[in-house]
Amino acid sequence: MSSNELPDDDREEEKDSPEEGSAFAADPGEANAESQPDSDEDELGDVVEPDDEEQPPVRVSLKKRLIALCTPTKLGVSIAVVAIVGLAWWATRPIEPVKPPEKPPEPEELYAQQIEQVLSGASTQLHTTTYEIDNEKLLLIPLEELEKAAEQRRLNLLADEQASDDDEATDESSSDSAPLPPGSSLSSSEEESGEPQVSELPKLDTVLIDEGVITDEGIATIAKIPELRHLRLRLSPITDEGLKPLLERKSIWFLNLPHSRLTEKGIRSLSALPKLRQLRVGSTLLGNDIGRALLEVKSLRGLHLIGVPLSDEGLKVIVQLPHLESLYLDDAAITESGWDWLFQNHPQLHVHINQRHHDRDPQHHKHE
Question: Where are stretches of biased composition, namely Acidic residues (predicted)?
Answer without folding.
Answer: 1-19, 37-55, 162-174
